[in-house]
Design brief:
The protein has three helices and no strands. The chain is an all-alpha fold and 90 residues long. The relative contact order is 0.05.
C-alpha cells in the first residue's frame, strides 16, 4: 500500500477542498489586509505564469483578461444602463 499522508484542510487549495470542509477551510484563511494582498499577489503570479509568461503564447490569456474587464464594467454600470433604458421609453 502507498503511504499517503493526510494533508490538513488548511493547507489544501480551494479546488481540492470538499464541500463539507469548506467552512473549516474558510475559517483557516488569513483575512487580514496583508493576507488578502498576498493572496491576490499569488493569484496574479499564478495567472501570469500560466497564461502570459509562456514560450508559445497566444492571445488566450490577454483575451481572457479583457473579457473579464468587459464583464465587470458591464456589471458595475448595469444600474445606470437600466435607468437610461427605462427613461428613454417611458
Amino acid at each position: 500500500t502507498a503511504d499517503r499522508r493526510q494533508v490538513p484542510v488548511a493547507e489544501k487549495r480551494l479546488m481540492d477542498v470538499k464541500l463539507n470542509q469548506l467552512g473549516s477551510w474558510l475559517g483557516s484563511r488569513d483575512f487580514t489586509p496583508n493576507g488578502i494582498i498576498s493572496a491576490v499577489r499569488r493569484g496574479h503570479d499564478r495567472y501570469y505564469n500560466k497564461y502570459i509568461n509562456v514560450k508559445k503564447g497566444g492571445i488566450g490569456g490577454v483575451a481572457m483578461l479583457l473579457a473579464g474587464y468587459v464583464v465587470l464594467s458591464y456589471v458595475w454600470e448595469y444600474d445606470h444602463i437600466k435607468h437610461d433604458r427605462w427613461r428613454k421609453y417611458h
